[in-house]
Design brief:
globular, binds 2-acetamido-2-deoxy-beta-D-glucopyranose, di-copper center containing domain from catechol oxidase, 14 strands, 26% helix
Length: 495
Amino acid sequence: MGFLLLCFLSLLKPSSQQFPRACTPADNLMRKECCPAWSGDGSPCGELSGRGSCQDVSVSDAPNGPQFPLSGVDDREGWPSVFYTRTCHCAENFMGFNCADCRFGRFGINCTARRTSIRKNILELSGAEKDKFLAYLNLAKSTISQDYQIAVGTYTQMSNGSNPMFRDISVYDLFVWMHYYVSRDTLLGASRVWKDIDFAHEAPAFLPWHRAFLLLWENEIRKTAGDENFTIPYWDWRDLESCEVCTDEYLGGRHSTIPNLLSPASFFSYWQVICTRSEDYNNGNFLCDGTPEGPILRNPGHHDRTKTPNLPTSADVEFSLSLTEYETAPFDKFANFSFRNTLEGFANPNTGISNTSQSSLHNALHIYMNGSMSQVSGSANDPIFLLHHVFVDSIFEQWLRRHRPLQDIYPAMNTPIGHNRDYYMVPFIPIYRNIEFFLSSQELGYDYDYLTEPGKMHLQGETLAKFPYSTCLCSSSSKKEPGGLSIGRSLFRGR
Ligand SMILES: *[C@@H]1O[C@H](CO)[C@@H](O)[C@H](O)[C@H]1NC(C)=O
Ligand SMILES: *[C@@H]1O[C@H](CO)[C@@H](O)[C@H](O)[C@H]1NC(C)=O
Ligand SMILES: *[C@@H]1O[C@H](CO)[C@@H](O)[C@H](O)[C@H]1NC(C)=O
Ligand SMILES: *[C@@H]1O[C@H](CO)[C@@H](O)[C@H](O)[C@H]1NC(C)=O
Ligand SMILES: *[C@@H]1O[C@H](CO)[C@@H](O)[C@H](O)[C@H]1NC(C)=O
Ligand SMILES: *[C@@H]1O[C@H](CO)[C@@H](O)[C@H](O)[C@H]1NC(C)=O
């Protein structure tokens, strides 16, 4: 079946998508400007057509927490200002580094149509839908991104922009690299590094960052496959005793003689990983450059059971959802009674008290896979990452619907660097603030099948469409329980 699908897919036009290729020449870096032309009218940011305009980036100066006591040493500080101080600012319905794309949830030539995309349970996809998903992943893994390149040197190594160091990358690996780049240690020269830094984990932006990451990844797969309706499925791992998607029909079974490899009957066994050798990069003072580093490793269930006794249960998820505070001081992996810290997996899922010697909920899955998934920097190499994080995002969505928070409960300052409300998310260009993804998925044009099925949720579809969730996020008077929203049924370890 894989072959047939690949033949079919090769007929589709592999279209365009972290650095926009159009912004990597020395000229752009020296001017610190990333405002490429929109092909529709040839003007920067599609300005002539009212799609957007080139504007100064205004970086938030809210103070960071004490976790990163340095400054002026990491290209990700004040993102994206080390590289660019002017980028496209897109109008209402538009998005993208040159405003060529529609905002999430908008479609059509002028991005005026609205549509909600539904993310489904992978085990409930039809055979054809499931094969299509797998084929799209393969296509993304083998298609060079037309729109983006990766940085293979720091700004200093690029002589402050006069000597650009960028490289082509496949659409799939672009996202593996971004996940590495956002979480990597700060290189301080020679083999010195600062490790207590991560712009997407162990702090409040964990959920909004991964929400944006998945939407962008989904969007690039859509463009690559020419299928505007594609959604990434999720894997509901609650209460399981084994990895039910670790079969050749889904994401690859176990190799018959080498337990931490995938079965040759799965084409994922032929994939090569990138960005897995953090210690080498740190010792050599260089960035991951996308060079293949061997096959995907996975050995589900052969992890250290004293740190992660079991896969997360429905009760663990339900407990995390009962926590009323999104985040608590000190806004990192030591936060007690923090929904974010509990769902991320640094707190006891029965009490909400931080315990960094255990890996629960989200972290538990990574540890359980006992391979590529288990180190933060390279975890997105294993496509299980996608299924897992989509399910984690659906739990975040349940929490938002249950507690209906005001946007200002998201901490504005004193969080670990990169996590304040208005910080621009590393390493995305176009630029997005953390807070822009701290809102209901319906505002972003997508939903989950199990959260929309009639009977499982009283306030549904039409009602939510009439009263967009943002209303609830902005006005405390509309704070109201949706009711009935209870659903049946180190990484990733303290550093
Ligand atoms: C899109 O917008 C342009 C410029 O406003 C207009 O000329 C065109 O008719 C619109 N197309 C559609 C399909 O709405
Ligand atoms: C890069 O910029 C820094 C800070 O402005 C400066 O100290 C350094 O000399 C510059 N390096 C090069 C190669 O231009
Ligand atoms: C996507 O779905 C919409 C609405 O169901 C449909 O009109 C459109 O043709 C679909 N697009 C593709 C490429 O299948
Ligand atoms: C796999 O689990 C063993 C303990 O069972 C542990 O020592 C090893 O570090 C784990 N490997 C990975 C890649 O997580
Ligand atoms: C979290 O709770 C534990 C147990 O009560 C306590 O020892 C610890 O100091 C608390 N941590 C924070 C950051 O408040
Ligand atoms: C944290 O987890 C470890 C390992 O399971 C356990 O031994 C320890 O008692 C826990 N600490 C607290 C404060 O609960």
